[in-house]
Design goal:
Maltoporin, Chain A; about 800 residues; Immunoglobulin-like; mainly beta
Amino acid sequence: MPTLQKVFCLLFLSLLSLGAWCQPATGYVSLVILNEKSQPVDGATVKLLNNAKPVKTVVSNSNGKALFENVKAGAYAFIVTYTGYRPQTTRTYNLPSENIDTVKLQPLNTVLQQVDVTAHAATIEHQKGKVIVNVDASVTNAGITVLEVLEKSPGVTVDKNGGIALQGKTGVLITIDGKPTYLSGADLNNLLSSMSSTQVSQIELIANPTARYDASGNAGIINIKTKKNKMQGFNGSFTTSVGEGVYPKNTNSLVLNYRVGKINTFFNYNVNIVQYLTDLYALRKYYDENGNLTSQLKQPSYFKGTFVNNTVKTGLDYYIGPKTTIGFVLGGTLIHRSGNNTATASWLNPAGAVDSAIFTGNNNTNRFKNGSANLNLRHTISDSQDLAADFDYLHYSISSLQDFTNHLLAPGGYTEESHSDIPTTIDIASGKVDYTLKVDKSSTFEAGVKSSQSNTDNLAAYQNLVGGQWVDDNTKSNHFLYHENISAVYSSIEKKLDKVTIQAGVRYEHTGYRAHQLGNAIQKDSAFSRNYGQFFPSGYISYQADTANSFTLTASRRIDRPVFQNLNPFYFIINKYTYQTGNAYLLPQYSWNLELTHQYKQLLTTSILYSTIKNYFSQLFLADTAKGILLYSQGNVGKTYTIGLSMALNLSPTDWWSVTTQATYTYKRLKGFNGNDFTSNINQLNMSANNQFKLGKTYTAEISGFYTTKARNDVQELLYPTGQLSAGISRPVLNRKGTLRFTARDIFHTNAMEGFTSFPNATEYFIIHRDSRVYTVSFTYRFGKTYKTAKRTDGSATEEMERVGTGG
């Protein structure tokens, strides 16, 4: 990344984020929204206005109540909208003297004209215990992938392999609609990098989850919430986008919903067609025992190809009675990825002269199939008791076909050809029951149980072309069977005492797994297993000092279990000189995480972070200097300590400009390497800013970007600075039924993955450029008709519609 462009991006984002002012704050203001029959309206959108400028948007609950907390003193009005009813603007209220009122809506039987709430929503919201990214609220999210949205999310970094870190810590549990994906590594990367942002409504960043959530994920949980419409009547939307970088990209999304009487049903379909490329340069240097340079390997590589992602999701909620709701959800994903990799591996002497060169080629075809089924039930036992149950089944079928060619670039040079077929099937079944009891007005008790089991069948068949015949390569071929069962039970209680809220919980999880490595003609059978159980306490103390200031201390103990790919001890070929392998002796890693947060109004959020990890997972890079081969693996390398400071600022310097900016500084110390004394320290800073501009009454514009300094996620690999700047503009069209967006992502093409790795007796410099500078045109059209229906007053049914998978 050129230094001048780095400085420009940093200064530009910093200047846009300057300025703030403070006013005395008061407590709260609330409206109760009723329909024409004086029944509470659940799901009405209520916007708080100050001098005609939107301040905050909330949605009314099952009692029709829309609550705004930490509101500054002043004159305010409200705009209330609800599908099938006339929008209503209230009178002006003087706060804090007037803080409660009731608004009655009048029905309107017309075609739906406008459902563009997210265009005015904040891009980033800070709630107790989590950060919420409203995907559609950012113009520059149009036409990009979920992995690219994560890359620009506050406190999130993505490394060259697609590994995700949160607040400087690796080991994040990725869930979709509250359900673990049960994928990791390349499989998870392929899923997120082919999943369009149009499929997603919100992304939740939860650094310290409560006992209700799975204990997996040392750095916390990132929950990707897909879109699910829940308006009355029949309605939907269609989104299409066309992007052009070096190669074209196209995404399409259809969302349909029908809600009437006791039934709500929905159907979502997405198809994404993307041509991709990756340009990689690597220079590897080998040294003798005295540190003298003996040889060099230069490997410029070029990857290109196409992936097509088809995703479908459908479901139905049926309200059996006023207290009971049952629902099911079916989903499926089919990803086809095909491409090729060409490279020239040049061996150089210490002076840099070429000794020999080998052309390497790799044609690959990957298929990813996923089917899922969910059955959920919610029952309100009484006004103070709720019971919820979830049962899930997931099936993955993943196949990878690769053809390798190595040709010595010399007169009479040899040609090597090999082939691999790597199919994997994964079956997961899980079930959980959650119980909630409101002990009194200030106390809530929760408890639950969960059990899940997974079965994996992973075959790797390698063949070499010898004398015109394909011959099995039993030195690399591999058949790996893996079975895992995790059982959990938890309980927690939350108590409010005047200005203090205390929540404490504990989760117990027991894990058992069996792995079987099947033998072949030259490899013996092997098997290993493990059983272990642990307690995972968590909780928080929150203190509301006054109407403007609150303090929250959270703590949690968490775990990262080795995934089957990292336990599988056989080889996966990356290229002629680079292999990847698993480690059957890998142990789980455990962490303690502490966070002290101060929030000043809705303006400033500041946090102090501390984390320590035992048995830290790190990539291990083992060098075979005799063959010139590097072997990538993973091992437990000792302990890691992280201390950090995070700051988020939300402000509106003018009526037409609002900005959200975030910075996370972390000091990380990695200690220990395969039982030897080895330490590695790093100071790293991640910054991001999102500027929203209202241009007249029609246009909305955005300038956003992020920058990350030098960083380190592994003991041996140092990542160099990277960042990007993006811009976009949008406007409503077709009588506000549609929205047109134009975006430019990574304008200066600075979002490179660059770093330096230290191996035993070897080093490697690398830089990776992707097709990240993309110009996109996106169009969304909303359609449908809403019906005048009586709104049921029971809130549990509506909550169930949103509930699929929100538990742990």
